[in-house]
Design a protein that fits this description.
This protein has 289 residues and is an alpha+beta fold. The protein has two domains: 66 residues, no CATH class; 205 residues, Fumarylacetoacetase-like, C-terminal domain (Fumarylacetoacetate hydrolase, domain 2), CATH 3.90.850. Strands 1, 2, 3, 4, 5, 6, 7, 8, 11, 12, 14 and 17 form a twelve-stranded mixed sheet that branches. Strands 9-20-19-15-16 form a five-stranded mixed sheet, with no helix packed on it. It has a three-stranded antiparallel sheet with strand order 13-10-18, with no helix packed on it. It is globular. The structure holds manganese (II) ion. Manganese (II) ion binds next to loops.
């Protein structure tokens, strides 16, 4: 099932280019009390809600997909985990191009480990990316994103995919420079997730997916997730050796070679097989005073 969030926090099931508005499903989530959960309650309850979502989608009012604002498919991830240099060809370009490494020593993912992106950087595809540091190089990185479905700690890779609720497309937008990744990749709007989540039952093997990114129609990145250094299951094992994972946590699995700059006015098109495609416009950040 393809599940989206759209417009004013509405929930939809994507069917044949349309969205069945199933927002009434949220009534069955109950009322949370302070201190509120630090995970995503909708994703946590998804196994219970899926049959009801399927039934509701048959009779729910439909709206054209093209008419809505798509939000991040996960509203409240407790954390966004991300994998650096997780395709061998991107490791090679990062080591060889000073515009990418800025003199930082590029280590393998096993040596450098994972990093976290601020949840405040999360944005759906319709909103677009806002360039705040136009004097710097701002790069696109297309990535498969795994959406965690249940709590776990020290999860072995053999069981790791059982912890995945679904997948979406991610853009791990990046300011190039010398600062720590967690700062350069956490600018507001620099974690794009969309266009919807595809439940894990529709993607039994996340290690065989073609992914592709173009900017203004020009192809920049093309790869297949089989070339990940650490695959989705291995990333979950690696992550949970350090962090607990919770429902709604996002894991950006890393980007292949071909990263490159974008500027205001550009349109990024990103697609991953079995998920879909999304258009993300790049805008100049207008500072609100
Ligand atoms: Mn990345």
């Amino acid at each position: 099932m393809k599940i989206c969030r759209f417009n004013e926090d509405r929930i939809g099931v994507v069917l044949d280019g349309e969205i069945a508005d199933v927002t009434t499903i949220l009534e069955s989530l109950g009322n949370a009390h302070y201190p509120y959960p630090n995970h995503d309650v909708f994703i946590q309850n998804l196994p219970r809600l899926l049959p009801e979502l399927a039934a509701l989608s048959k009779t729910a009012p439909r709206v054209p997909l093209s008419s809505v604002n798509l939000l991040s498919p996960v509203a409240n991830p407790g954390k966004i985990i991300a994998a650096p240099v997780n395709y061998a060809d991107h490791l090679h370009e990062a080591v060889s191009q000073t515009e990418l490494n800025h003199g930082n020593k590029i280590l393998t993912i096993q040596m450098v480990g994972l990093f976290l992106k601020a949840t405040s950087s999360l944005q759906g595809c319709s909103h677009g990316v806002l360039i705040e540091h136009a004097d710097r190089r701002n790069d696109h990185e297309v990535e498969l994103v795994a959406i965690i479905g249940k709590s776990g700690r020290n999860v072995p890779k053999e069981k790791a995919l059982e912890y995945v609720a679904g997948y979406c497309i991610g853009l791990d937008m990046t300011v190039r420079g010398t600062e720590d990744r967690s700062m350069r990749k956490s600018v507001d709007t620099f974690s794009v997730a969309g266009p919807w989540m595809v439940t894990a039952d529709e993607i039994p093997d996340p290690g065989v997916l073609d992914l592709r990114l173009t900017v203004n129609g020009e192809e920049r990145q093309r790869a297949n997730t089989r070339d990940l250094v650490l695959n989705t299951a291995e990333l979950i094992e690696f992550a949970t050796a350090y962090y607990s994972i919770e429902p709604g946590d996002l894991i950006f699995t890393g980007t292949p070679a071909g990263v490159g700059p974008v500027k205001a006015g550009d349109v990024i098109h990103a697609e991953i097989a079995s998920i879909g495609a999304m258009e993300v416009a790049v805008h100049k950040k207008r500072n609100i005073v």
